[in-house]
Amino acid sequence: MTIRSNRDHGQHYRPRMQCLKKMEALVVEMQDSKSGVKGTEQKLNVTSIPHVVTGQDILAWIANKMKMDAQEAQALGTMLVAYGYIYPLQDHKKLIVKPDGSFYRFQTPYFWPVQQWQVEDIDYAIYLAKRNIRKKGSLEVYEQARYNNFHKWLNPKWDFIVMQAKEQYRANKERQKADRVVFDCQERAYWIVQRPPPRAHSAMDCLDRLVDPINSEPQTYDHFRRTTIYLQQSIMRPKVKSTVSLGALVKYMTTYKNHDPFLAPCTPSNPWLTDDDTYWELNMPSVDVPTKMRVERWSFSLYELLNDPRGRKDFKVFLKKEFSGENLAFWEAAEDMKWGSAASMADQAQAIFKLFLAPGAPRWINIDGRTMGLTVKGLEHPHRYVLDAAQTHVFLLMKKDTFFRYLKSPVYKDMQKKALTPQPHNFSDAQLEQNARNRKPGLDPIIIWQRAEEERKAAEAASRPVDISQIKNKLDRK
User: Fold this and answer.
1) At what angle do helices 70-82 and 55-66 cross, to 10 degrees?
2) Whole-model pTM over 0.70
3) Beta bridge partners of residue 49, listed in sequence order
């Protein structure tokens, strides 16, 4: 990304050559003497101007030629005006096509955008100086402000600018009055498009700015601070070669292509097409024996393993055997806090800190001092993401060490052996009709949520430390 400096007032022209060439061909067709828009000679301020067309004629021709309605024709006509192919003779500041008798003219090809003339400040300053000479100092308010700014910024070249303006003004006076008025209108229309008035939109400006391009941003402390932060972030942003990124994309597609329902068929069958819900039953969140494709997906990444409730349960069994279940328990607690209620946020954060992070905690986890400092400081004003740093640290620890040991463990290998490989269904037309007649309603989402809550509470009760005194009291009562 190119950073635009405050003193860079030139238009950043972004070529749109295909779009511009199509508009150019349309404008050439509109100017055809036989099939184009019919133009007439009109008087404007006691001066006869040739080849003048009205807005309603332009819109009627576009609607007839392009086979579109009036609203689409007006949008296309306004685009032609915004890009400078047509310019208004009366209200030159409004770059739109009015569906009435307003006068317009076609711009000369010399000023078309396809010429890709580089718009320079010096050229604009010469135009303003020439206009100032012709108007005897009575410029528009915004033009006068820009003229004064140019006089200050381009002071070393100002004699050259004034000399060029006088020469052009003298050469223009030698023309006939009608030609002189037409050229003035063409030049003014060109600069209205390239350097629009304040708060006006410019189709030629790739930055789509809605402010005066001449007025620079104040050089304040906050401006330099924001610029410094932006540059630091740009420097720190990782840069990857296109070959590396394309290789990673190919690798990702190769890994996931058999698990993409658009690229690989659902086995045993697609329930939306066959009305057979075996596929859904085999892929329930809490199924006892998962499918082979599902178990294979766990090996892609730790994120895939934790994102699957059945895979997370299997990973939890392995961690208990490794006596390192506190890492996953902390990750789950931090994840639950993100999606918990706002009222219990502070209590949850304190409970998690006392259980996992405080000195002498029952299920203490090992994180570095910097992460611990950030977490403790954030707990002064707890919010949903106050444990993000510690959670990311624990996730990376599991990803680098525990996850790869799990893939090599007997727990995962046994699950691979037990995993189901459903055979594809080959239903006939009669069987499909029978399935449609025997279609049964699915489980209500509330019932599924209740089951998940019961399983979660049972898991919490199983993982909770056992109070031996309570068990002794119950045995004594019996």
Assistant:
1) 120
2) no
3) 42
Helices vs. strands in the chain: H and E counts, helices first: 23, 4
Reply yes or no: is the peptide bond before residue 268 cis, omega within 30 of 0: yes
pLDDT of residue 3: 34
The Cα–Cα gap between 83 and 54 comes to 18
The number of C-alpha atoms within 13 Å of 406 and in the hemisphere containing its C-beta is 29
Distance between CA 200 and CA 195 in Å, rounded? 10
* Direct distance between the N- and C-terminal alpha carbons of the chain, in angstroms, rounded to an integer: 77
**In a 10 Å sphere around its CB, with 0-12 CB exposed, 13-18 middle and 19+ buried, how is residue 431 labelled?**
middle
**Residue carrying the six token digits 């309570």:** 470
Evaluate whether 62 touches 68 at the Cβ level (below 8 Å).
Answer: yes
Q: What are residue 105's DSSP bridge partners?
A: 87
- Give the pairing type, strands 103-106 and 40-44: unpaired
Please choose, from the candidates 167, 231, 164, the residue with its C-alpha nearest in 3D space to the C-alpha of residue 1. Answer: 231
In the beta sheet, which residues pair with residue 86?
106
H or E segment at 47?
Answer: strand 47-54
How many whole angstroms separate alpha carbon 460 and alpha carbon 462?
Answer: 5
Q: What is the pLDDT of residues 449-475, one digit of tens each?
A: 777 788 777 777 766 655 556 655 655
Q: CA-CA distance, 233 to 156, in Å (whole number)? A: 38
Joined together, the tokens standing for residue 126 give: 């010469």
Alpha carbons 471 and 477: distance in angstroms, whole number: 10
